[in-house]
Amino acid sequence: MVKLVILGGGGFRVPLVYRALSTGPYAGLIDELVLQDTDGSRLQAIARVLGDLPLPEGAQPPRFTLTENLQDALAGADVVFCAIRPGGTAGRTVDESVAARLNILGQETTGAGGIAYALRSIPAVLEIGRQMQVHCPDAWLINFTNPAGMVTEALHKVLGRKVIGICDSPVALVRRAAQAVGVPLQEGRLTGVDYVGLNHLGWLRALNYDGEDRLPKLLADERALASFEEGRVFGAPMLRVLGTVPNEYLFYYYFRREATLAMAGAARTRGESIHDQQQELYAKLHSSPTPFQDWDAVRRSREEGYLAEARPEGGSRDECDVTGGGYERVALQTMRGLLSGERTELILNVRNGTTLPQLPEDAVIEVPSEVTADGARPLPVRQPLTLHQAGLMAQLKAVEQETIKAAHGDRDAALRAFMIHPLILSGHVAHRLLEAYEQAHGYKWA
């Protein structure tokens, strides 16, 4: 009997995981699914979506139960998916709005908003890690909670190799770029893929196939680049200069001015839109005769609005962009590798060790990794980091490690994190940001 627990079980993405566990290659992977959330109303709403989920004939969805009690949920768990959002979408709205008022980029996981979010997320997940040591000490934790790199690194101090961080952005980028240049990818294998970075800060640097790196061919083909999201976001001229295809979140670094102006000119922040959308949806789900259809319509709308500030006015995402990734696929591939022992290769957030000598050994990095029954470990990096890559990664890793210290109660570390972040650029603004977030969220310091 295999027991999977989803913490944040009333979350918007849970139906995607449930559908993947009900049909296809992951059907039958688990026997018991427990959805835990501190908000019972959200749990009930998502349960109605699961009950209305259209599945093919013969599908055998896992049994699921609901609970608001963390200890009950964790008892005897084999795998825990951590997908919580401390402060909810209301907290995200504050994070983004405070930054915007100070003319700083306001984005949930990048820059000031990411630091503010981590100061809530890290204490909450550390308590989960401590509870796991008591109630399911042998369980694996697969972390969805953002900011994923910082949260995973903080959890390593409690759970060690038993925690693995995931994100769908890197694998989606690789899949889209490979498709654009005609490189076939085998599920669970990353042969020929050179991707390196931190969470929401990485670069695709090579796509080797049949003895040749096909990335230069892709970078030289404007039509191919225009066929997928990252190619359109950064544009062919810039990508040729970089010689890489960056993760879409590097838009905020390479086009900081444009991103800040686009967000400042928007009528509402992304957080405000999602907050209102979710409030309306969850209320509706309790009585709707078509809960799945209502949920799916909002899902498509959310996907369409993702990173909208990076697209020209009126621009939209193609279907291949919307469906290119999927947290559920990455999470379930990881879980299958852990439970079956079948070797799987994925881009994951894992402990650095000696993989990138420019960063501390205990740093969490986002690179191609192999997953087995013993856990996840980074695969060898195919080529050295450039000075640009090493410099930006080192600066952001310094921000992350100061933020982790701050989440343990160190206010000076919090101020340092804001001061040294490359998207903030002013010690005076760093002071004002920290004071505004303290007032809004009531952070506690040792």
TrEMBL record:
Extract the SUPFAM superfamilies matched here: LDH C-terminal domain-like, NAD(P)-binding Rossmann-fold domains
- Residues binding substrate are R92, N146
Q: How is the cofactor bound?
A: Binds 1 NAD(+) per subunit.
Q: Which residues form the Glycosyl hydrolase family 4 C-terminal domain?
A: 195-424
Which residues does this entry assign to the site Increases basicity of active site Tyr? Answer: E108
* PROSITE patterns the record matches: GLYCOSYL_HYDROL_F4
The residues that hold Mn(2+) are: C167, H200
Instruction: Extract the PANTHER family matched here.
Output: 6-PHOSPHO-BETA-GLUCOSIDASE, 6-PHOSPHO-BETA-GLUCOSIDASE-RELATED
Q: This chain belongs to which protein, by name?
A: 6-phospho-beta-glucosidase
**What is the species listed in this Swiss-Prot or TrEMBL entry?**
Crystallibacter crystallopoietes
- Recall the taxonomic lineage recorded for the source organism: Bacteria, Bacillati, Actinomycetota, Actinomycetes, Micrococcales
